[in-house]
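[job 0412] stage=fold_complex status=start
inputs:
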Amino acid sequence: MPQKRTVYLDYSASTPTDPRIVEAMMPYFTEVFGNASSAHAFGRKAENAIETARETVAKIFNCKSKEIIFTSGGSESDNLALRGAAWASKQKNGANHLITTPIEHSAVSKTMAQLAEVMDFDLTILPVDEAGLISLKNLEAAITEQTSVVSIIYANNEVGTVNPMPEIGKTTKKHNILFHTDAVQAAGQLSLDVEELGVDMMSISGHKFYGPKGVGVLFVREGVELIPSQSGGSHEHGIRAGTHNTPFIVGLAKALELAYEERDERLAHVTKLRDMLVDGITARIPQAHLTGHPEQRLPSHASFVFDDMDANKLLIHMDMRGVAASSASACKTGNPEPSGTLLALGYKREDAFGGLRLTVSHHTSEEDIAYAIDVIVESAETVYKLQKTLAK
Amino acid sequence: MSKADTRVVVAMSGGVDSSVAAALLVEQGYDVVGMMMRLWSDEAMGGAEHNRCCTPEQMADARRIADQLGIPFYVLDTKDVFRATVVQFFIDSHRDGFTPNPCMECNRHIRFEYLLENALALDADYLATGHYARIHKTDTGDFVLKKGIDDNKDQSYVLSVMGQYELSHTLFPVGEYPKPEVRQLAAKFGLNVESKKDSQDLCFLGKNDYRDFLQIHAPEIMQEGAIVLTNGDEIGRHEGLAKYTIGQRKGLGVNSNVPLYVIAKNPYLNALIVGSRDELGRDELTASRLNWMNGTPPTEPFRAEVKIRYKSEAQSALITPLSDERVHIQFDEPLRDITPGQGAVIYDGENCLGGGIIEKFEKTEKIAL
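[job 0412] stage=fold_complex status=done
writing structure:
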């Protein structure tokens, strides 16, 4: 075993804020502190920073500035989009049917469930295949006269599978239905061109691409009506009330800009590391199997299931050896639930506790990956041996 | 081996004793890892608020203390093994007419087997808990379990299931202190737990009484039946054998000129056997599943002191080893509340020698047949 090091392999959970971004944010805590809604010079300076940030994001999204809404993060964007569009459509023409998938982030799945259970919407949850992909045929079949909103995750957080956005977009457009996607994991790695993707609403979150936590974006196509979740002042075209968080909005825009400027180098690096992980782990641990799509997956994302293993135990042993990763059933309370995503992909209940997610960064080195593979192999051996001892 | 190179996994509950144990170990310079077991999720008991232990709140408390102490903290999902060993044993024992001590069973199968093995797998040298007992090493290299310094809090009774292997890998940091001093230490360490209540036994029962628990989880053993005298005469009805304990006088609901006590249970006839105070008194018992802490069962009779309940005084007795890990215990004076299923734990002064489970009194049980 080489000398102990600390290796963070949970960049899908959060990323460190790039120092260049922290630097860009700093003046907006102190010098440019005005309320962007104020009419005076202090307010105008803040407003200018926010509108510049909005233009930066709009350029990457290939949309109009006014189609960009700043929020507190991915969860808020998802909530605002789904509840806002579902209610507005119902009010307008009585449309009462929503469509989603079983592999959404909980910000989407729980909002959809609430709309169905508390607010009486009809909800269809599309099946996915063993890689986590939805089929257009199933989508077509689910659409009715009453369908108002479809929400399908761009890149799945747990198994990394990337859904065919443009094809889904064409389908929803054909039926004149609103298409929302949670692009939180995709942002920084995949195209966010809303014309190419064919989306009407799209959520991203700043801290997944080396920006600050607590800030996000919701793209809302011009002409799409939303009922605000948070009412109050007329900020963000009256769709999202609350004083603008100037430094965080500036930070998000800068982080997104850098991510797409440096995208080719970053992706080349993370793809190589990801493939090292997949090859190393499946070669050295016969009980480990790749989950999600082998090719149509996030470049930074490797995920596995382990036979006969509670991944929470594996994570403890990895953490003690300095390697930080996550599991879908990860839980701080010792009361793990099987991963809903793995169950939807067709894994058996007992296998759905064994998911391990490793997500890398352009900061991660090949030495880090080599060390992490050694640690994962050793940890898995220890846990299997322990389970054998206790089974006696 | 220096303390910094000695890894100790400390079992944390968010309570006073285990929190102070963790803090003491950190202060002494060990490489400390906090661990908490999720023993029970009580959907069947109507939600987590009914659980005394491992509530989200207690987990948050333990995690906060670990963070303050700067140690890693993990929660182990122990639900399946806890249910399969401790809870099932608890139900089965009641079904068979015993009054079990699940804490002993938990220490046997959960703390000093499941948790200990998990700790050792993390390259720990020791498992530490917040129990009030002491482990000393003799000149010959044997490990001896001694009563805690604080006689009121001594927990050696429920630790009598340990052997040399377990003792050699265990630390009881608070066993050397009286409880009031442990509370002072908690305040000194700034852990914000010094005024928490002492933890309860039967953690998995929650707010409910053990009778409610059995009513939910084993309703078949909570059937009404006859209350009989030792001559077989039925004098009333009981509400389920598990609701009664040996020596109980109140709440029997029978009329009698002399005070009547529960003296035995017959699960086969679902009969509760009651008798006078004289019939209750008993000066001997047999115990099975004997664990000798030094690993060597005695061959000759010897004199020692025996505790027949967690909170009872140790009584002088003559111990005669029998075959099949059993002993016969002859007390100098009769005792009123010898209860099948409870532990009979043998002491030589402050040293715990071992213990077993009190067997049923076949003769008394059969009187009513």
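[job 0412] summary: Chain B has three domains: 3-205, 223-279, 281-362.
[job 0412] exit 0
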